[in-house]
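Still learning. Show one?

>
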Amino acid sequence: MKAIVCVKQVPDTSGKVAVNPDGTLNRASMPVITNPDDRSAVEAALRLKDQYGCKVVLVTMGPAAAESMLRELLAMGADEAYLVSDRAFGGSDTFATSQIVAAAVHHIGLEPGDIVLCGRQAIDGDTAQVGPQIAEKLNLPQVTYAADIQVHGSTVTVRRMLEDGYMTIRVDTPCLITCVKELNTPRYMSVPGIMGCWDKPLTVLTHEELKDEPLIEPDTIGLKGSPTNIAKSFTPPQKGEGVMLEGAGRETVEDLVSRLTAKHIL
């Protein structure tokens, strides 16, 4: 059994988001982090490793600098990592990205009992599309928004988090599961993990290594294979400062009605 975890390095949007004059994100000026939901997926895989002794394999698509993120996750306890990186993959939207990552997972190999784990969504795009698209392209059963994962032999029972409750689903392996941050609290890197992370295998997969995979075609990857593209990103205008009206008498109500009327809300 192995757990393959798809992760992404994203801009840290908790601080100031920099936007170029043309409306695109200025990623170079922003610090980068591991996508939070993906960290929960890594922790879920590590807990499976603790319980069942499975192998934890990381996969990410990105520039060479993403190696630092993979080394940090290896220091948390993952066993092996793959960095999918090539200029031919540049400009990929969610459709093309899932095509490439699915090809990488196929290249690594899936066997009965294996689980592919992804974060629910990335904080830079918030589409929640890549995980399900990977499952579709690999013809895997999928369960999204996992808030609890229990393995029972060749099946997995997942508790899905919905807006108004939970849904419990049992699925056969190999399968793909997307994880929400409420699933767990990711562990920290350990000192032995940091010391040993550089000895763990990290393989770079370029277009040359993946070109023979059935999912890799020139018209399905990169900018050419992306049916969508981002025309502009911008920061929404801030709302005006709110006004608190104190009191519960008639004068307060009349004041409220007067303010709402002045703004043409009433």
